[in-house]
Amino acid sequence: MFYYFHFILKIVIFLSMDWEKLSMPEPGSLVAVGMSGGVDSTLVSMLLKEHGCTVVGVTMSSWANDLPLPPSVEGVRGSCYGPDEAIDIAQCQVFCQQQGIEHHVVDVSEAYHCNVLDYFKAEYRSGRTPNPCVNCNPTVKFGALLDGVRARGINFDYFCTGHYAALVRPQTDLRQVYGDDAGLEPIRPVMISAATDRRKDQTYFLCRIPSSTLEKVRFPLSSYTKKEVYAMAQERGLVAATRSESQDFIPDTYWDIIFADEPAQPGDIVDLEGKKLGTHRGIQHYTIGQRRGLGVSSNRPLYVHSIDSKKNQVVLCDDKDLLCRGLVANKWVWAGGYAPKSCFRGQVKIRLASPAASSTISAREDGSYEIIFDEPQRAVAPGQAAVVYLNGIIFGGGIISREIR
């Protein structure tokens, strides 16, 4: 009974909180814009210039020319990593030259290789399912890129990107939501909130960017839909409005090349009882919940239940066996850097495409957090991000270490 009333009190506190949406850069401010050559970041540059800001375009170069990846034959970039980045860089340079905008290309290849590419391969080879974008944003796009910009003596007032997300600040102490002791100095950090266009919402990918970094960040497209963005870009005659959407991190055609630095280790595909069903090509080719491309024949649909890297086994199951009552996640980044001490309620997303699930979040002695869903969730994958939302606002993001079945 006490817990119930305590929970109701925290909900009342949260609903009564006032949130201040961060204003866009002021006219005359120096704004560095992360440019990819796409319609979103190109339009951001134009809107800020029209608003009276001094815009400096910055484009990151992650390609180190160290893998035999094939270039695009259509002249359109096929992935966010590879030799095709030269296409985007050239288009950014042309646009900035036409608009009289200063432009810089910042080499982030070392940070990208370590924090994204090596991380991606190591996670898959350990039987986990990484999310490269979740790791790239804090370490590269909002990390190494900004370090490189500052190293060039560009003392920007704001850093803007074309992400579909919003930034807010609580008007009262954030810790009141958790029910923790608020102390003497209130914590009012910058926090990430859902964009107007929920279909394009990218907050899940941004969940691990620290509030201290977000202080100087702005997302000018937060209140626009993708349709409106294209319309505004077409009104301004932007070439980027005719370009296709950016592609995935690594297309299927790159997969074997990316993992060619170590030979694949075939092993057994088994069921939950340990019965051998077939042979896998290497555990890096499989992920939790996968159904297609398993290489086994069966009279019913089978899915990847788990991946045992020590035994080099891929375990299959029926769909119902994918349900999990919860998970444990570690490596958390909490808004304001304040890790909640008490048990609290929230909505948790375990992958971009899944709706947030109502859950109870509890701190553990080892610094990890246990999340118990109100309703069992399907295919919880270690290595993916677990993101805690309250009413569309991110309170924290961790990495799933194991599922609770």
Concise synopsis of the structure shown:
The chain has 405 residues and is an alpha/beta fold. It contains eight helices and 18 strands.
Helix content: 10-25%
Largest sheet, in brief, is: 6 strands, antiparallel, barrel
What is the β-strand count?
Answer: 18
**Multimer state:** single chain
Query: Which term fits the overall shape?
Result: globular
Distance between the termini: 27 Å
Please work out how many helical segments DSSP would assign.
8
From the alpha-carbon coordinates, what is the Rg to the nearest angstrom? Answer: 23 Å
Q: How confident overall, as mean pLDDT?
A: 92
Overall structural class, as computed from helix and strand content, comes to: alpha/beta
Order of helices and strands: HEEHEHEHHEEEHEHHEEEEEEEEEE
- In what order do the strands lie side by side in the largest sheet? 13-16-15-14-17-18
- Residue share in β-strands: 25-35%
Given as residue ranges, the uncertain stretches (5+ residues, pLDDT < 50) are 2-6
